[in-house]
Structures are given as structure tokens and as C-alpha cells.
Write a structure and sequence with these properties.
Blueprint (H helix, E strand, L loop, with lengths): L1 H16 L14 E4 L2 E4 L13 E8 L2 E5 L4 E6 L6 E2 L4 E5 L2 H27 L1 H28 L10 H25 L7 H28 L4 H27 L6 H26 L2 E3 L4 E6 L6 E2 L4 E6 L4 E5 L2 E2 L11 E6 L4 E10 L4 E3 L2 E4 L1 E5 L11 E5 L1
Antiparallel strand pairs: 1-2, 3-12, 3-19, 4-11, 5-7, 5-10, 6-9, 7-8, 9-11, 12-18, 13-17, 14-15, 14-19, 15-18, 16-17
């Protein structure tokens, strides 16, 4: 009897499943096929949208994040933000001490730059005067060469050939006659008392006449004599020196024809460039005393406080753009990634909100990663209409 009742009950359930009692056939539960560590929804899954069939898990992430560090070592003067604060790009987050010293360096560099610029201006303004001075120096050098060469040429023939020897002899004979007369007068009074004024006057006249006679004799000797080897060597040296000075004067004059002295101009320009570099370096060092936000975002972590010593390159603040969130997959299999393309539409299931959101693939990682021994590729997905309650870190399922 019990067996018969059980058989009747099973038949009733079978009829009910076939719609004998007018009830709709229930929707089958979604089936998940596991390939490695990657769950793939079947077409009966709520995420299935007629796409490539690839599926992956992922997380909601900020579109932009940054771990910020200071460029210089130093004592932290101020920390102007806390976790949760929203900041604008360029806003100062941390300030180091030491600005006074760098401000003085900037002022010194600015003064040197101004001085160098003025020197260059003076060089350009005085170019005409410098050219005139160079032209005068060139003319003087040319005349010096002419004079030195003339003196050297005089040594090539007897000095008496220039016509002045006769006049020298005449002057000498006149001096000899004057000397003889002075000597005769002195002989007439040489026995006088030396204290006699007439004696002193005649003796002085004799000495003077003797000196003049010797001078005239020297002139005669010069005209009638030949130059020595030393005379020739000195004359040749004077010619060489004059010609070398002329070459220098000519180069200086030529260099100034198109503007200021090129060497002086190069030096003035290099001085300006050096001053500009020093000023830029000092300004950069001063700017490095401040850590600024590179983009609009929210402070998610602060790892330093006022009074502490900052180490260059060590992250001290974490910043994230929480106003722009996207999805990043974590386990898209290497077997599925060939079926995914940039621009492809996807359906994103946000688990915490129990909500589906449409999106599109904006990036596929060019290099693979590893997850539990499997090769996976990260994809980035922009959501078309992000829910207001969406937060970074929420887990999602993605159907491509």
C-alpha cells in the first residue's frame, strides 16, 4: 500500500513538471564552467550578453593613483593634508625647511644674471667705439712697421751717403775752431788767481767748447762708420716686433667689422647662460622643498609628520583620483584574451551593489601577469554610467 502511494506521488510531480497543472517552466540556474581559475558564464548566465563569451573577475580602481615622494632630504616643516582630504592639482601638501638659504641663492643668481646681461649690452653698445680704437691701433702699427723698416734700410749702405755727412763735418770744424779760441783765452789767464771771476768764466767756456766739439765728432764718426752686427740684429728685431704687432692689430680690426669682439661676445654669452642655469637650479631646489599634488584627487595615505626627517624618493603621501573610477580585471585567461578587443562592449556585475553596468574595454595589458600559476592579462574598462554608490576596491564580474 505504501509503495503504491509513493508511485502515485512521483507521477504527480512528473505531471506538474510537464505543465499539466498550467504552471510556467522555471528558469534554469546559471551554469559556470571553470577553465583553470577563470569562471566563464554560460549563455544562460545573467551576465551573458551575446559577446565573445569570455569572462573575468576584477575590482573597481581609481583611474589615477600616485605615491608621492620628496626630491630633497630635509626636516619636515609642515604637513598640510590628512587622509580623506580632497586636493587640487598644484596644491602644496608638504613643506620642508631651508627656504631662507635657497631664497638667498636665488637672489644672488638673479643679480649675477642681471650683471652678465648688462655686460653684454655694454659690449654691443660700445662696438662702434671699439672698432674706431682698433682702426687707430692698426694705423699706428702700420706706421711702426714703416719706421722700423726705414731704420733697417739705412743700415744697408754707408751712412755718409745720405748727404748729411758734409754738414756734420762742417759743424765739427766750427766746434774745433770754437774750442781752440776758448783754449787760447784760457792760456792767457791760466796764471790768474783761480778765485778771479774772469778765470772761472774762461775755464767754464773752455769746458763747454770741448763738450760741443766731442758731440760733433761723435756725429761725424757715426756718419763715416759702418753698422755693427749688433746694430743689424737690433734693427731686424724691431722690424719683426712691429710686423707681429701689425698682425695682431689687423686681426682685432677685422674681428670687429661685423660686431663686438667674438671672444668677448662668447664670454659674455656664456656668463649669461651660466647665470641662468644657476638661477634655474636654485629655483628648482626651492620648488623641491614643497611636495605638490600632481592632479586633483583624494589623500589616501600620509606616512610622515611635521618635525620628521624626509628621505628623498621615499613615498610619504598616496593620492588617488576617486572621482573617476574604472574596472580592472585580475584573471582574464590567456585563452580568452584573443577574443577581447579595445572598444568591445562588456557587462559588469558589481557584487556589493548587486547591479549590472555597461562598459567598454579601453586598454589591454601588453604584458601578461601570473595568478595561481596561470597566465592572465589585465584589462581596463570604462563604465558608461557608474552608480553613485560605487567605491574603489569593490569586486566585480565582467562578461565580454
Amino acid at each position: 500500500m505504501k509503495v503504491k502511494a509513493l508511485f502515485i506521488l512521483l507521477v504527480a510531480f512528473s505531471l506538474a513538471g510537464c505543465g499539466i497543472f498550467g504552471q510556467a517552466t522555471p528558469t534554469p540556474l546559471p551554469t559556470v564552467v571553470l577553465e583553470g581559475n577563470n569562471p566563464t558564464a554560460t549563455p544562460s548566465s545573467p551576465l551573458a550578453g551575446g559577446g565573445s563569451g569570455a569572462a573575468a573577475s576584477g575590482n573597481v580602481a581609481p583611474a589615477q593613483t600616485a605615491d608621492l615622494a620628496l626630491a630633497l632630504a630635509g626636516n619636515v616643516k609642515t604637513v598640510s593634508v590628512a587622509v580623506g582630504d580632497t586636493v587640487k592639482a598644484g596644491q602644496v601638501l608638504i613643506t620642508l625647511g631651508g627656504s631662507e638659504k635657497l631664497a638667498a641663492a636665488i637672489q644672488a643668481a638673479a643679480l649675477e644674471l642681471l650683471s652678465a646681461q648688462q655686460a653684454l649690452k655694454d659690449l654691443n653698445d660700445n662696438a662702434a667705439q671699439a672698432r674706431a680704437q682698433a682702426q687707430l691701433a692698426l694705423a699706428q702699427a702700420q706706421q711702426a712697421v714703416t719706421d722700423a723698416q726705414h731704420d733697417r734700410d739705412l743700415l744697408n749702405y754707408s751712412r755718409g751717403e745720405n748727404g748729411n755727412a758734409d754738414a756734420a763735418w762742417a759743424n765739427y770744424y766750427i766746434a774745433v775752431d770754437a774750442y781752440n779760441k776758448a783754449l787760447e783765452r784760457f792760456n792767457n789767464i791760466k796764471n790768474f788767481d783761480i778765485t778771479n771771476p774772469a778765470h772761472a768764466a774762461v775755464q767754464a767756456s773752455l769746458v763747454s767748447a770741448q763738450q760741443i766739439m766731442q758731440q760733433k765728432k761723435n756725429i761725424v764718426d757715426w756718419y763715416t762708420g759702418a753698422p755693427t752686427a749688433n746694430d743689424l740684429a737690433q734693427a731686424d728685431s724691431k722690424v719683426m716686433i712691429a710686423k707681429a704687432s701689425l698682425d695682431i692689430a689687423q686681426r682685432n680690426f677685422d674681428a670687429l667689422q661685423s660686431g663686438p669682439d667674438p671672444d668677448a661676445l662668447a664670454l659674455a654669452t656664456a656668463r649669461i647662460q651660466n647665470a641662468q642655469a644657476q638661477l634655474a637650479a636654485s629655483q628648482a631646489n626651492l620648488a623641491d622643498l614643497e611636495l605638490k599634488a600632481p592632479f586633483d584627487g583624494t589623500i589616501t595615505q600620509v606616512n610622515i609628520h611635521s618635525g620628521e626627517w624626509a628621505v628623498p624618493g621615499q613615498p610619504v603621501i598616496a593620492l588617488a583620483d576617486l572621482g573617476h573610477l574604472h574596472v580592472e580585471t585580475t584573471d582574464l585567461s590567456e585563452r580568452d584574451v584573443p577574443r577581447v578587443q579595445v572598444g568591445q562592449a562588456v557587462t559588469v556585475r558589481i557584487k556589493a551593489l548587486n547591479q549590472n553596468v555597461n562598459g567598454r574595454v579601453t586598454q589591454i595589458a601588453p604584458l601578461a601577469g601570473m595568478l595561481g600559476g596561470d597566465v592572465v592579462y589585465k584589462t581596463t574598462i570604462e563604465l558608461e554610467s557608474p552608480p553613485a554608490a560605487l567605491r574603489a576596491g569593490m569586486s566585480v564580474d565582467v562578461q565580454f
